[in-house]
Amino acid sequence: MKYGIRDNMLKAPLEAVFSVAKDIGFDGVEFCVGRDYGENILWEDGGAEKLKGLADAAGVEISSLSPGVFSQFHPALPEAEIRAEGVEILTHVIGSCAAVDTRHILVPMFPRDMDEWPDSTWDQLVDGFKALGEVAEEHGVILDLETTFSADHLVMILDRVGSHAVKV
Fold it and tell me: By CB neighbour count within 10 A (0-12 exposed, 13-18 middle, 19+ buried), where does 147 fall?
């Protein structure tokens, strides 16, 4: 069994994250993309390759990418421009996976009002993940939903999305 840790839990500068993880016994690092995503190394020219180089030099893998910022831009939001930005963010992260040698993206979504959503909001969510699932499939990437949804909601979402690239 392999063990990993979120990069931000190590409280170390990027250049040291992977070596610190290795030194304390981890095999991998879940690399997070926070609120200021445009300043993240994955948005720099050659940034994904640089990130992979840091991991390789330390002898650990990048087990997954985790765009935490996506929780503010998810497909169930009412504002089309915010949803569109979410698609751009997640599409960029999907496109970075090959360079960092990972197939997994943890997709965070923690809405507090989901029990009040009308069917149209659930439809919008499903449609959003169908489209993102297609992009993930094209890149050989798995979108692992990280949510506070109930098991019934998750089963419904996965059934309706119908993509082997969208999982829990």
Answer: middle
The pLDDT value recorded for residue 34 is 95
Q: Determine contact, residues 75/114, Cβ cutoff 8 Å.
A: no
Residue 28 CB contacts under 8 Å (≥ 6 apart), including other chains? 2, 3, 4, 5, 21, 60, 61, 62, 63, 64
Please give the C-alpha separations between residue 164 and each of 11, 47, 108, 147, in angstroms, as whole numbers: 35, 28, 18, 18
pLDDT for the residue numbered 3: 86
Residue 4: Cβ within 10 Å count: 17
Ordered structural domains, the chain, with CATH: 4-167 (3.20.20.150)
Residue segments in the chain with a per-residue pLDDT below the cut of 50: none
Measured CA distances, 84 to 8, 20, 128, 134 (Å): 27, 36, 10, 16
Between CA 84 and CA 91, with CA 89 as vertex, the angle to 5 degrees is 90
pLDDT value of residue 56: 98
Distances (CA, A) of 114 to 119, 123, 154: 11, 13, 12
